[in-house]
């Protein structure tokens, strides 16, 4: 049987803006705990702060953005996604394979329309 090799992933997570700092921390801990329990390793976390969403998602117009770099076996990604769908504090998430960890991330501001 072939041994599976962990791959590098970049995950973007938008957490509800209505949460307190403590609750937001618990929601982020739940994400990182799911990764480490699946024998993954969190390499870097970029907190991007509170941002306005490009469009409304389930009644949310704002959210706290986090970008997380981690290694994990590819077969565990499906289980992570199932866990993310159960996380009621998570507005949206995306997981992509990547080749390197970005040391700095900056988003351009959305132009406010009136």
Written account of the structure:
With 114 residues, the protein is of the alpha+beta class. Helices cover 24% and strands 42% of the residues. It has 2 helices and 4 strands. It has helices spanning 21-37, 77-86, and strands at residues 7-16, 41-57, 60-72, 90-97. Strands 2-3-1-4 form a 4-stranded antiparallel β-sheet, with helices on one face. The longest helix is centred in the first third of the chain and has 17 residues, at 21-37. The chain is globular, with a radius of gyration of 15 Å. The protein starts with 6 loop residues before the first strand and ends in a 17-residue tail after the last strand. The model has no long low-confidence stretch (mean pLDDT 90).
Question: What's the gist of this structure?
Answer:
The protein is 24% helix and 42% strand. The chain is an alpha+beta fold.
Topology of helices and strands:
Layout: E1 7-16, H1 21-37, E2 41-57, E3 60-72, H2 77-86, E4 90-97
Antiparallel strand pairs: 1-3, 1-4, 2-3
The strands making up the biggest β-sheet line up spatially as: 2-3-1-4
Q: Characterize the largest beta sheet: strand count, sense, and whether it forms a barrel.
A: 4 strands, antiparallel
Quickly give the structural class: alpha+beta
Number of beta-strand segments:
4
Low-confidence stretches: none
Q: How large a portion of the residues is in β-strands, by DSSP E? A: 35-45%
């Amino acid at each position: 049987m072939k041994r599976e090799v962990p791959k590098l992933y970049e995950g973007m997570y938008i957490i509800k803006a209505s949460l307190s700092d403590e609750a937001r921390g618990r929601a982020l801990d739940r994400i990182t705990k799911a990764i480490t329990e699946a024998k993954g390793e969190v390499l870097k976390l970029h907190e991007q702060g509170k941002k306005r969403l490009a469009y409304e998602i389930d009644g949310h117009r704002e959210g706290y953005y986090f970008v997380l770099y981690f290694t994990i076996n590819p077969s565990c990604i499906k289980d992570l996604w199932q866990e993310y769908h159960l996380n009621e504090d998570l507005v949206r998430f995306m997981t992509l394979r990547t080749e390197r960890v970005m040391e700095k991330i900056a988003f351009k501001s959305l132009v406010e329309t009136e």
